[in-house]
Amino acid sequence: MAETSRDIILKRIRTALQQPSPQQPAVPNFTAPLFPAPADDLTISFAESFVRAGGTFYYCATVEHFYDLLYNHKKERNIEHLFVWEPELKKLLHAAGIVHTGDETDFIAHADAGLTTCEALVARTGSVLLSSTTASGRRLSIYPDQQLVFARASQVVADISDALLLAQDKFGGLDKLPSMLSLATGPSRTADIEKTLVLGAHGPRSITLFLLDDLATA
Known about the structure:
The chain is 30% helix and 20% strand.
């Protein structure tokens, strides 16, 4: 009985399976990190990831440079009401003569923008780690249309796990973490409705970060 094409193909497969593999796969290194740390400078990696996620990034060589950039940013974005509730930030803006609202007066009606600090910056994802422990609370980084963040280069870490460890060290242990820790990666966005991307549906329509290079001054 003559072999059919199917028989010939199956015979070849059986023969091939009986032969030893010409090249054994490499033994995986289970101790290596799943995602290696960014090879470049962490500050540069964060800036690239942050902009890629849709944020606006400003490098501040000095505090005076931060004043100039913030003043120009307010003018360009037509920010009339800038809410700043943290004492450190209010002191900085008072020194520069930058107009802002230091309390909750007309916050709901005129929340153009809010300026806050953060806990850490994640280089891999361009995320900003925020907490509820500052005077900004939960609302100032979520409710205003424009989210502004003042941070320092010493707060940049490689991964989210490093950011959480940094927060854990700051607050004195896992059981003492704030009631709210959140990661902001780019502007608030959603495509739940008819797959149409909408910015600002659940939070700020834009996010801007001013990074003070405290490593250089140190």
